[in-house]
Amino acid sequence: MFSSGLSAVEQRELAERITRFLSLYTHISDSYIIEFFSQDLWKSLPNSWQLVLQDLSYQQTAELLLDSKNQHRRYGSVWPLSLLAFRTTAHRLAFPRDLRQDPGALKPEEFQENQSQSSMLCHIFRKHVKPKKQHEIRKLGMLVKQLSEQTECSRVVDVGSGQGHLTRFLSFGLGLSVTAIEADHAQVARAYKFDTQLLCALEKEKQKEDSSSLVPASQSTPRHVAGWVNPRASWEAFLTQLSAPDVQQHPLNPTGPIQKKPRGPEDALHTPTSNGRQSRDLGEKLSPWQCSSSVKDVCQEESSPPEYPDFILTGLHACGDLSATLLRHFVKCPHVCGITSVACCYMKITTKENPSPPGRVECSVPLAPNQELGPSDYGYPMSSWVQGLPGHQLSYKAREGACHAVEDYVQRLREESELLRTHCYRAMLEVFIREVRPDLCRAGIQTIKKAHMLPFTEYARLGLARVGLPPGLFLDPERVEAMLKQQSRVVVYFSLALLLAPVVETLVLLDRMIYLQENGLHSQLVPLFNPHFSPRNFVLVAHKRK
């Protein structure tokens, strides 16, 4: 299951090569495609690049630029060495994203018969779960189970658990003792509701004579905590948050709470008995409203909590700094014996240059002086090595670009999808907006439904209204037509930027691997999910040796 890892020396050398490479092309990685016309981005490319790229078809763009596995490229003209070097280096520096057992497949094998139902996941775990999430919870769940066996630890804390889909599979499906923590109280309430439905489904399955072998034998009921994990708080505060007292209630009768005495820390990460059931009754559940300390408790100084049992940390697409926070807890907390981290939303990571990126959740309570962010507490870079490399800085735009789905865009190019015109439409609209309101640079225009199916005039009418401009603003037909003819150039330029996206993601993840290595911990990066199905498919895996 685990991929072969790079040595410590190889990790550092790769990070140095990446930072050197990316620093040469910041004018591409930091550019916004909606400014293609207003900033004349095409002219920013070398003349020799423009000549060979200007007439590329969508198919050629996919085959000659983005497809790293294409060994039989056919060029219509001689490409400059600088462009060939750019493309080849970008491919070589990025971590491979394809699964060895499922190379190039647009859909995982488990969805070949039914595209919405995984054939490898019991039906009770598919309810309310979209195919992408089914694929992710099955693959990550099995990896966590393997790590559990390797570390001889059956307790798991699922951070950013949402509606509890992964939590339920780990707990009911794999028999692990799981505590789930989620900031959104509404999501926690739904997690309880779905837990209840699953228990009902299990009871019905037991009554069937031909009960499926996929139905889990154990019922290790998960514990849910409603609370926000503060990136600035200590690991002691995190443990205190997990051990908050609660009110429990029967899942089949959620209106009837059962008052319980506050439990000790040994119960916060509850241990299953030998038969896979919890030491408490299966019917007992936690109140989603009273099982967590307040944000104020988490933000302020906490006294050291009592002794805790060991546990494994996991986070499926933990957003922004949350993934970095879990890694720091793994390093510093003696009770965390292993971690599986799947990151996402790199643009929300804090950096020294941008400590409050858009979309980042801020603590509503002032922090104690000793909890203020220090130079080593940003989401990137985490390692001292990367922090010391010239050109290691990654802009918000570069990190946002690293979240794009390369495989999905390649598929659109090969299918010559009408969706490709959307970027051109938005870049055209930016020109007309700035002519009327120069202060509205890169104004936020929410997704216009089926924009690719609309003529530009209709798209512009809808978009102008969303930024407070007259929908009937005059649009010079000749200028509109001239810009529409450059749609293929918009696509090519976006593809050049997309080439850099996996390299940026590699640097962010490599920095985290080096951070662990600097703290004496070996880690490995696993391309666990099918990238066509789940673009953020890397899982960072590590455990502490006993």
Count of discrete structural domains: 2
Provide the CATH top-level class of the largest domain: Alpha Beta
Residue ranges: pLDDT <50 for 5 or more in a row?
Answer: 246-268, 270-305
Annotation field: number of helices? 19
Tell me, briefly, the overall form.
Answer: globular
- The CATH fourth-level homologous superfamily of the largest domain: Vaccinia Virus protein VP39
Order of helices and strands: HHHHHHEHEHEHEEHHEHEHHHHHHHEE
Give the helix/strand layout.
Elements lengths: L7 H16 L2 H4 L17 H7 L4 H9 L14 H13 L37 H21 L3 E5 L5 H9 L3 E6 L2 H22 L16 E4 L8 H8 L5 E2 L7 E2 L6 H4 L26 H5 L11 E9 L1 H12 L3 E9 L39 H4 L8 H6 L4 H10 L5 H16 L19 H11 L10 H8 L2 H32 L4 E5 L10 E6 L3
Parallel strand pairs: 1-2, 1-6, 2-3, 6-7
Antiparallel strand pairs: 4-5, 7-9, 8-9
Please tell me about this protein's structure.
The structure is a single chain. The chain has helices at 8-23, 26-29, 47-53, 58-66, 81-93, 131-151, 165-173, 185-206, 235-242, 265-268, 295-299, 321-332, 384-387, 396-401, 406-415, 421-436, 456-466, 477-484, 487-518; strands at 155-159, 177-182, 223-226, 248-249, 257-258, 311-319, 336-344, 523-527, 538-543. It is an alpha/beta fold. The strands form two sheets. It has a seven-stranded mixed sheet, sandwiched between helices. Strands 4-5 form a two-stranded antiparallel ribbon. The chain is globular. Mean pLDDT is 84; it is low at 246-268 and 270-305.
In short:
Residues 246-283 are annotated as: Disordered. The chain is of the alpha/beta class and 546 residues long.
